[in-house]
Amino acid sequence: EAGVAQSPRYKIIEKRQSVAFWCNPISGHATLYWYQQILGQGPKLLIQFQNNGVVDDSQLPKDRFSAERLKGVDSTLKIQPAKLEDSAVYLCASSLGVGPTDTQYFGPGTRLTVL
Amino acid sequence: AQKVTQAQTEISVVEKEDVTLDCVYETRDTTYYLFWYKQPPSGELVFLIRRNSFDEQNEISGRYSWNFQKSTSSFNFTITASQVVDSAVYFCALKSTGFQKLVFGTGTRLLVSP
User: How far is CA B81 from the centre of its chain?
Assistant: First the structure.
């Protein structure tokens, strides 16, 4: 079974530029998550989708971050404009459902460097 | 509030040594789930185990074992006879019925040298 796919793996941009990340979850997984992992910290949830609807985006900096999950499968996360503090690894995860027993499976992440 | 504490920032061992990674959690919910993930240098978080709050039986999977103690709110992870391939950052995480976000600790970096 294929895992969670993400691209690109690495991205370097200048501050104030825009960037987009793509995620393809495990087939059949209704729930998709985007996490931000700053160096030396654990992942922090940015946004959670159930099919193509947003379940939780309380920690998404909405003035610069946006995400969508059209058709309830693939998802994109965008940052516009980027700031230096956005340098981090952006992890996508998916799970079958939203319950506490649903295990999240993670992709390889996109390492973003903002100069 | 939900919180996971991994007090060990980094542990270095020599191959074949046993090593225990500590995890202490806080939650007001009576039903919750604890997880361990491994993050190798490639960056992907690899799921290792999920344990619910009603099952305090220790679990063993090959060289890995987990000790869950509700009395001390701990869910420790032991690797027996460590190998170089075990070098990674290990995260403990918590999810409860009352707070359904997965809350991670800050991770413990394990370095296993030959």
Answer: 17
Residue type, A24: N
Reported as a single tens digit per residue, the pLDDT across B7-25 is 999 999 999 999 999 999 9
Among the listed residues A92, A96, A94, the one whose alpha carbon sits nearest the alpha carbon of residue A108: A92
Amino acid in position A42: G
Contact B102 A91 (CB under 8 A): no
DSSP A71-101: GGS-EEEEESS--GGG-EEEEEEEESSSSTT
* Chain A contact residues (CB < 8 Å to B): 3, 40-45, 48, 56, 89, 91, 93, 98-101, 103-109, 111
Count how many residues are written for chain A: 115
Q: Are A51 and A28 in contact (CB under 8 A)?
A: no
Q: Give the tens place of pLDDT for each residue, A20-78.
A: 999 999 999 999 999 999 998 999 999 999 988 999 999 999 999 999 998 889 999 99
